[in-house]
Design brief:
- The chain has about 220 residues and is of the alpha/beta class.
- It has 9 helices and 10 strands.
- The strands form 3 sheets. It has a 5-stranded parallel β-sheet, with helices on both faces. The chain has a 3-stranded antiparallel β-sheet with strand order 6-5-9.
- β5 (about 125-130) and β6 (about 140) form a beta hairpin.
- α1 packs parallel to α9 (about 210-224), α4 packs parallel to α5 and α6 (about 115-125) runs antiparallel to α7.
- It starts with a strand and ends with a helix.
- Bound molecules: adenosine monophosphate (AMP).
Length: about 220
């Protein structure tokens, strides 16, 4: 199974991607993860990519596209892959599509988690981290995982502790806007890439406004 997943930052794409990955047992290939690994290992690729990533810009296509096309040829991806974070713009979509056509590789599933920009931004800013455990997700804007109130204090909905904090980058509105500018750009950005696939193949669209559980149920139903 060869799968693409799209969704803005704040849409729960990471969580849904992990569920899809489990269902099909294919490697979850995330461009951002590959870049970060290369940066920490100080590889030539990492050195080239770092400045762009630090500025919140896309790494240029002449670095990103060959890197991903080579990754798809690795042994673990022989029986399929789930690509996450790529393509992120129209040029990358065209390059991927052409490479797949040239090699007679079928794109089996394309998923889009649809979420409006305002809600996506709120979701990011509403995240609260429980210091006791990173696996205790709380979000002040998502009813299903909203923190609880105890004696007038906001506490973790899972363990009840008062130690809830925010991640700095979740509160950085300029950084959030920069990423969303790329995602919601229908001319050359990520939504242009999504539309490119919509013109060529079936795209499974799920409504990202519901809770994690509802979204994954809708997704599983549509995947069959
Ligand atoms: P992510 O972890 O997906 O948010 O990616 C982190 C950073 O890696 C992004 O802000 C970009 O700088 C870079 N990046 C990830 N995917 C791509 C891509 N498809 N094209 C160019 N740059 C990317």
């Amino acid at each position: 199974m060869n799968i693409l997943i799209f969704g803005p930052n704040g849409s729960g794409k990471g969580t849904q991607g992990a569920i899809v990955q489990k269902k099909y047992g294919v490697p979850h290939i995330e461009t951002g993860v590959i870049f970060r690994e290369n940066i920490s290992k100080k590889t030539p690729l990492g050195e080239k990519a770092k400045a762009y990533i630090d500025r919140g810009e896309l790494v240029p296509d002449d670095i990103t596209i060959p890197m991903i096309l080579a990754r798809l040829k690795e042994d673990d991806a022989k029986n399929g892959w789930l690509l996450d974070g790529f393509p992120r713009n129209l040029a990358q979509a065209e390059a991927l599509w052409n490479a797949l056509q040239n090699e007679n590789i079928k794109l089996d599933i394309v998923i889009e988690i649809d979420l409006d920009r305002e809600t996506a931004k709120k979701r990011i800013m509403g995240r609260r981290l429980c210091k006791m455990d990173n696996n205790h997700p709380n979000n002040i804007y998502i009813e299903a995982i909203a923190p609880h109130t105890h004696d007038g204090k906001t506490v973790c909905r899972v363990c009840g502790c008062e130690e809830l904090s925010t991640r700095d980058d979740d509160q950085d509105t300029a950084a959030i806007d920069k990423r969303h500018n790329i995602y919601y750009d229908t001319k050359t950005g990520t939504l242009a890439a999504v539309n490119f696939f919509k013109e060529r193949t079936k795209v499974i669209v799920v409504d990202g406004r519901a809770g994690v559980k509802e979204v994954s149920e809708e997704l599983m139903k549509k995947l069959g």
